[in-house]
Amino acid sequence: MAVKLLCLSLLLALLCTGWTKQQTCLLSASNCDECIQSGPECAWCTAPRSDVRCHTSKGLRRAGCHKSYVYNPQGAVQVVKNDSSTEPAVAKTLLLQPQELSLRLRPGVSQSFPLTITMPTDQPVQELTMDISNVPAGVNITFSSITTGNPLLIQVNVVAAQCPGKSDDSNQNRTGPWSSLITPRGFSLSVMLEITLECQCDCIRNREENSPTCSGHGALLCGQCACYESYIGQNCQRDTDSFSSPHEDYCRSGPNAPVCSGRGQCVEGFCECEMRANPEERYSGRFCECSNFDCPYQNNRVCGGHGKCMCGQCICDDDWTGEDCSCSYETASCMATNQQLCNGKGMCQCGVCKCEPPYAGPTCENCPTCENTCVKHAKCVECRAFGMGEKRDRCDQECSYLSVTMVDTKDDLPQTGGTTALCLMISPEDSCIFYYTLSRTSSRQQSTVARARKCNSRGLK
Fold first, then answer.
1. CA triplet 143, 145, 146: central angle to 5 degrees?
2. How much of the chain is in helix, strand and coil states, percent to nearest 5?
3. 259 near 251, Cβ under 8 Å?
4. Is the pTM of this model over 0.70?
5. Domain limits at 54?
6. N or C, fewer C-beta in 10 Å, the chain?
7. For residue 348, which of 359, 365, 363 has the smallest C-alpha distance?
8. Is 68 strand, coil or helix?
9. DSSP state at residue 130
C-alpha cells in the first residue's frame, strides 16, 4: 500500500470524531473487556463490590470509585531501536530514525511519533511516497509534514478503528502483535512497527484465587468474582448443590423484607426480576432492589437528560452535577467585566450568579445604593469624558470596559433609580464638580456624563 506524504490528519480526525458520536459506554457491560471495547472514553472500576463498573473515568469517580481502581488504557508508543548515523557529514545512504517501534493501540485513540528522514546528499530532495506493508485490517496510518528540506521531519499517526468481533475467524491472531513496515519508495530501508490492539484488560493477569471477597469459592478478577463450580452469586455465596427446593429466605434483603423487593420471583433461591412495559426500564440487583428509572426527574427527563440512573442515584455526565443532574459547571455566564466570577460579590451556581445583597444583576455588578460604586468608576469616567485625571495616560488600557455618552447638563442625564445611579465627582486636577450616571448593560458598564462642570471660582465650564 502506497501513501503520499501529505497532510492526511483530517481523515484521522473524522474517524475519531465518528467513533465519539456513535459510541457510548456500555453501562451494563458484564466484564472489563466488554466495557473498554464499547468506546475509547470508557473505563472499568476494579474495586470489589462496586455498584458502577463501566463508565467514563469521571463518571466512575463521581460514583465513588477511587482513582487507583479506575482502569482506562490509552495505548502507548515505545521506541525499540533508534541508532544514530555514524557516517561522515557527507552521507551516501538514506537514514531513518527511529528504526523500530512498538505500538499498543486502544481503538479510537490515536498514537503518533516523529520520523526523521535524512536523504543522501547526492540526491535532490523530492516528494516522498511511503509504502506501507502488512497493516492489520482496521488500522490506519497517516502522515503529515512537520519540516521540509533535508533532513525531513514528519509526523506518523496510527489509529485502530475497533477491536475484531468474536465471530471474526479470518485471522486467529485477532489482537496482534503484527509487524508492519514503512518504506520510502525507491529505497530499501524501512521502519518496523510492531502493532498490538488493546482489546483485553491487563487486570485479568492479576487473578486472586480463593479470594475472601468471593467467599473463598472463586477467583477475584478485575474486581469481579469468577465462581468455582457449583457456586454462584455476586460473591460466590450460594452453593447450587444445596438447593433441593425453592427457598424464599435467600430472596429477601432482610428477615421481613418482601421477596425480591416485590419486583420479581424467587427461583431456587435467586431473584429473577420482572420485565417492565418499557423495555428501556429495568430492575437489577441481587434482590431486584435497583432500577434505572427511579431517579429524580428534571424537565420530564430522568436525571434531566444529563446522566444515567443507577440504583436510584443519578450519575451525571461530564460538566453536570446535582441530584437530578440539572446543574451545569459552566461559568462563562457568571464572568464579570473585571474577569471575576460574579464580580467577587456572589457565588456562581449552575451557571447563575447568586449575589450578596445589595449587589444584583446577572454578574453582581449592579449596586446603585453602594457608596463605592461611583468612586470605583470615577477616574475612568473623568479620563474617558474629559481626557483629564489620574488615568488619562493609561485610559485606553484600564478603562476600555466603560462606555461613555455625553450630554449638555445635569438635567439631561438619564432618570435614576433601579440599576442607574447618579454620581458626582470633584476633580482633584481643577476642583471642578461634574455629574454622571452609572448603569450596567448586558455586556459592559455604561456612563452618561454632563458636559457642563461647576467650578468654585470660574462658574460653569
1. 125
2. 15, 35, 50
3. yes
4. no
5. 1-21+43-81+96-119+127-165+172-205
6. N
7. 363
8. helix
9. E
